[in-house]
Amino acid sequence: MQKRRGEYGVDAPRVLLGLVLGSVAGWCIGAVGLSIGFVWLGVLGFANGAFLGLSALSFLWTTRRGKFAVWEELLDEAGLRGDEHILDVGCGRGAVLLMAAQRVARGRAVGIDVWSRVGQSGNSRELALRNAALEGVAERVELHTGDARRIPFPDQSFDLVTSSLVLHHVRAPDERARCVEEMARVLKPGGLALVADVQHAREYQQHFERVQRAPVVRRRLGFRFWYGGPHVATSLVMVRKDERAPAHAVG
């Protein structure tokens, strides 16, 4: 895996903190249980502490290493020529956006985000720009403040649209559907959409099938993209837009 020069923070920092604190509490309860002769409480506490501790390690490894390795493979498999226009929806500090930018020396990589710090620690446009400079791709990267439900670009603007761990933050199902419609709208005929998320993958697949009328692939991305274990696994939804699609092939 290529070495990353930027600083990409931690995904869902509150969740990771909760796992760490839960693990510490479990070990403490286990120790107290054994010290007062409640063996069952000690065993239960230690088991819980070990489970949450391993979950925290899995979570941290994914957010710092695993997801980068997976996305490198996905972008390599996309078969980019190097002159594409790419959109990353919910780009954050630029983890996926800047890897894509490194593959389009003659193209353009555009990121949009609302810059919330709940989904990613220290998330800001300024840090994303700094990372772009550190990765050596600042000249072909654009950043915009924008909502996935109202992507601020014309129809059929991009050859590749990506999104990683973003759409599940949109709570209402009809608004998630709108996000998918917007990604389909800005994708060129023959273009590729790659959406990775820990929830609602089947829902995204159904929406893409409805608006694209093209085959949609949905698959798990493996242990490198687990946020704590297989119970919080990331799935990929992938679709290539029909070459014959009209400009408004949604709905």
Provide a brief overview of the structure.
The chain is 42% helix and 18% strand.
Explain this structure to me?
- The longest helix is centred in the first third of the chain and has 39 residues, at 39-77.
- With 251 residues, the chain is α/β, with parallel strands linked by helices.
- Strands 3-2-1-4-5-7-6 form a seven-stranded mixed beta sheet, sandwiched between helices.
- It has a domain at 80-240: Rossmann fold, CATH 3.40.50.150.
- The chain has helices spanning 13-35, 39-77, 95-101, 125-134, 173-186, 201-212, and strands at 85-89, 108-113, 141-145, 158-164, 187-197, 216-220, 235-240.
| Low-confidence blocks of residues | none
Main sheet: strands, sense, barrel: 7 strands, mixed
CATH fold assignment of the domain at 80-240 = Rossmann fold
H-E string: HHEHEHEEHEHEE
CATH homologous superfamily assignment of the domain at 80-240: Vaccinia Virus protein VP39
Side-by-side strand order of the widest sheet: 3-2-1-4-5-7-6
DSSP summary: helix tally: 6
N-to-C span:
40 Å
Structural class: alpha/beta
By CATH reckoning, the class of the domain at 80-240 would read Alpha Beta
Write out key terms for the chains shown.
7-stranded mixed beta sheet; alpha/beta; elongated; Rossmann fold; 251 residues
